[in-house]
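To whoever picks this up:

The parser on our side crashed when reading a file containing two proteins. I've narrowed it down to the boundary between the first structure block and the second sequence. Both blocks are reproduced below exactly, byte for byte. First block:
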Amino acid sequence: MARTRVLIPTGALGLAYDRDALARGVAARPDIIAVDGGSTDSGPAYLGRGVSKYSRATTKAEWRDLMLAREQAGVPLVIGTAGTCGADATVDWFYDITCELAQELGQKLTVTRLYSSQNPPETAEAFTAGQITALPAAPEIDADLIQSCSNIVALAGAEQIAAALKTGADIAIAGRTTDTAIIAALPILRGANPGGAWHGAKIGECGALATTNPASGVIQIDFDETGFTMEPLTPSARATPYTVSAHMLYENTDPFLLHEPGGVLDVAAATYTALDDRRVRVEGSVWRPGTYTVKLEGARIAGYQSVSLTLLRDRSYVANARGWVAEVAARARGEAADRMGLAEDQFDIELRLIGLDATLGPLEKSGPLPSEVGVLAIATAPTEAQAAEIGKILNPYLLHHALTEDEPMPTFAFPFSPAEMPRGALYEFCLHHVLTLDDPMSAFRLVTNEVGDD
C-alpha cells in the first residue's frame, strides 16, 4: 500500500500554530490536513448552549490559513468537533465561516458537513429500548432526564469521517468526533494497519503535545501497513520514544487500551524506535474489533447563577477571611431560606477566596498573607429571578459585614456596579453512556454543498 501522510497543524483550532512549520508540512506533500476543533475541557456550557468557546475572528483567521494550505497541497481538509462542542448549531456556524472565506479567497469548494446531534425524544426511546449502556461512574439517568437535555451529541468515529471524505469533499466539517477519528479515518480507508492508524491518531490528537516542545503545534504522521512514523515540523521540537509512548496516558486511564467506536486499541506489544533525534517509529499496535458503539454527551440546565465580587484589604479581615465568609454564607443562607421559602437543597451559596484558596480550597497550603483577598460569591437557584434575589440578599453582607459586634461598620470594595452580575443558565453534563448502532451512519447525517467563487 502507499504511505498515508497526515498533517496536523495544532492540537485545537483556536490555539494558534507555527505558520512556517505548516508551510514545511505542505511542502512535504501530505494526503490530508486534519485538525481538532474542540472538546469538553471547558465544561458543559458550550454544549448546553450550542456555541463555540473560541472567538469567531480567531477561528476565521486560523481557518483561513488552513484553507490556503489545503488549496496549495491539493488535499482534503477536515475538522472534527467543529465549534468546540460539535453540536449541529456550531457545525453550521463553522460552515458559514468557510463559505465567507471561500468567497474572499476565490475558492470553489465541495464542503461536506457531518452532523452529530441527537434528538432527545428519540434518544430517550433508544434508552427505553436498551440501546444505551452506562459507562463506569456514569450518573443515573431516565427517559425524562434525557429529554431535558438542551443538546446531545454522539462522538463519530473513523467510519463517519471516511463517509464524509468519500463524498469528494475538499473540506469536511464534522460535528462531535473522537479526537482520533479525523486522523485515523483516511489511513484506515487506504488500507493502513488499523492498530497503527488508531495508535498514531492517539499520539497526534493534540498536535505537538507528544514532543519535547508541546507548544510548537505542527506535526506529520506517516501511516503504512505495519505502523506509523511521527515527526514534529518545528525545528525546536523533537519526538522521542518517551514523549510518544507517554501520550497514551493523556486523558486515558489505561496506558495500553483505548476504546474507540467499533473496538479497542491495544498497544501492550507496541515498540517505539527513535529513527533519528526527531522522528519515532511505532509498530506492534493491535486493533481489536467489537460491538459498534458511540459515546453520547449531553448537557442540560441545572439552575441559574448570579455572582458578586468584593475585595478585602483590612489586615484583620484578610487574616480572618475564611471565618468571615463562613459567617456571611451562613447568614445569607438562613435569610434566603426564610424570606424566599426555599428549601436548603433548592439553592446554593458559595464564597470563594481569590488569592487564598479559590482553586484548591482546604487542600491549599497556608502561606504568607496577601495584601488583599477577593471574595467571589456565587448564588445558584432554580430560576434566574431567584438567583438574582439571593445575590441581593448577599449584597449588604459583602459590603458591610463586621467581624465582631463592637467594631464600627466596615465598608469593602465592590469593583462593579451593580454588584450582582447574572451568569444566566448553569449547565451540567448528564450523559456518560454509549449508544449501540447496527449501522455506524444511523446516528449521523451528511450534507454536501458546492460553495465559493462562482
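<<boundary where parser fails>>
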Amino acid sequence: MRVFISTVVLFIVWVILTQSFDPQELFTGLIVAAVVSLISPAIASDKPKKWFQPKRYVYLIIYLFYFIWEMIKSNIDVAKRVVNPKLPINPGIVKVKTKLKTNAAKLALANSITLTPGTLTVDIHDEWFYIHWIDVSNCDDVNRSCQEIVEGFEKYLEVIFE
C-alpha cells in the first residue's frame, strides 16, 4: 500500500513538473515514480505512523524558511569574500557531532550543509560530520562556533525525521 500511495504522489508531482500529457511522458513518469517508490522504503517506512503527525509538516515548513535564510546569509558572506580580497579565507575541515539518529535525517543535514555556500560535507562517520568550511580561523573541534554549523538545522530535522 505504501508503494502504491508513494507512486501515485510521485506521479502527480511528475505530471505537475513536466506539464505534459504526452503518453511517452506519462509512461516514463509512472515508471520513474514506481522505481523511486520501490527503492526508497527506508525513508517512508522508518516509523510509518509518525509520518502522519501534523507537527512534522509544520516543522518542515519552518525548516524550509530557515534553510532559505541560511542560504541567503551564506551567499552574502561568500560574495563579500569574493568581492573584497581583504576578508579572510581560511579554508579547512572541521569535525562536528550530530545528535540525529536516523540515516534520512543525517542525509538531510549533510545536504543542507552542502547546499549552503561556504560549507561542504566531506564525510560522515557515525555521529561525526567532517565539513569543509570557508573560514575556520577561530574554530577547533570543541569550539562552539563549529557546532553551530549543524545545530540550526538539527533542531528542525530532529522533529521532521525522528
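After patching the parser it read the second block fine. The radius of gyration is 19 Å. Residues 48-161 form one domain.
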